[in-house]
Design a protein that fits this description.
By secondary structure, the chain is α/β, with parallel strands linked by helices. It has one domain: 3-Layer(aba) Sandwich (Rossmann fold), CATH 3.40.50. Helix content is 46%, strand content 11%. It has ten helices and eight strands. A six-stranded mixed beta sheet has the order 1-8-5-4-2-3, sandwiched between helices. A hairpin with a 2-residue loop joins strand 6 (219-220) and strand 7 (223-224). The longest helix is centred in the last third of the chain and has 23 residues, at 277-299. It starts with a helix and ends with a helix.
């Protein structure tokens, strides 16, 4: 009965929120949204919406309809030894330690609305600090999403690097690459851009714990964008060389041309680049499970 009521609640929210949500929530999947450095002002409304959809994601049959998802690939790559200290801090919080943890996610328009980050944050709190209000949570999750952001043009954005310096996050999640894959792609130029961006990160935090979020599959004007896979490969190569971790959204969502399948299930927008709120929340849900998989792998092996 509880699950049935949850399904009804989600159905109502999916219909009502796009029509009557406050102005800073997306009324249309292509609408511009103000840059958000923290959670939206209407955080309670957003979290209620996400919590209702999360219950649907947790149901036994809902995810089965998305047969294109690659659940076997849904893991963090190269997590050790980089993430060991971060996972140990999470374990300490779960065991009752009063130890704050700071996560900072940097991204483009995919991160800007808050659906991905808020879903990850809510999922982490549910597992590590159940029944704890967001305002009292030890896990603090900040994010900055900027339309058109790339490894090249963010180098001149002083705000994000100042925030890294101020927060000194226990985990830095970098979710970029979609805009780097637009137009003509040159691997050498992209690696130069990555090196320049990360050099500025190192200036503010010399030894960051980083997870790179690889860009999603996409299309432009109906034509599949093959540059995304090239960008993803270059990010993986950089992360592997530097000892950083990565999460391969491109592979997890189904690989080449999977964006069309996401659109068929109303998880992607009409432009085949962006996603619907449900699509972004599904991404957050999948990323959270990749993190928990890594966490459990370490803690079950004795930490």
């Amino acid at each position: 009965m509880k699950r049935y009521l949850a399904l009804i609640a989600v159905s109502i929210l999916l219909v009502v929120i796009p029509l009557f949500a406050p102005p800073s929530l997306p009324l249309d999947d292509l609408e511009e949204i103000e840059i958000s450095e923290e959670f939206p002002v209407e955080i309670d409304c957003l979290e209620e919406f996400i919590q209702s959809y999360y219950e649907l994601l947790e149901s036994e049959n809902y995810l089965k309809q998305f047969t294109f998802l690659n659940h076997e690939a849904n893991r963090l790559h190269n997590p050790q030894p980089l993430l060991a200290a971060f996972f140990n801090k999470l374990m300490a919080v779960r065991n009752g330690a009063n130890q704050p943890i700071t996560i900072y996610q940097i991204g483009d328009s995919h991160i800007k609305p808050g659906y991905v980050s808020t879903t990850v944050r809510g999922s982490l709190l549910k597992f590590f600090q159940p029944d704890t209000p967001v305002s009292n949570a030890l896990i603090q999750y900040h994010y900055t999403g900027i339309n058109g952001a790339s490894y090249t043009n963010l180098q001149s954005n002083a705000t994000i690097f100042e925030k890294i310096e101020t927060l000194q996050p226990d985990l830095l999640i970098i979710s970029l690459g979609t805009n780097d894959a637009q137009g003509r792609y040159n691997a050498a130029n992209f690696r130069k851009a990555m090196n320049g961006f990360m050099a500025k990160v190192f200036e503010k935090q010399p030894n960051p714990t980083v997870i790179f979020g690889l860009p999603a599959d996409c299309a432009k004007n109906g034509t599949h964008n093959t540059n995304v896979e090239k960008v993803a490969a270059e990010i993986m190569a950089y992360a592997s060389e530097r000892g950083f971790a990565w999460w391969n959204l491109y592979e997890v969502m189904g690989g080449s041309r999977s964006i069309f399948k996401w659109k068929q299930k109303d998880l992607a927008s009409r432009d085949l680049i962006h996603f619907s709120p449900q699509g972004y929340m599904l991404q957050g849900y999948l990323f959270y499970h990749a993190m928990i998989h890594g966490y459990k792998a370490q803690t079950e092996n004795g930490g």
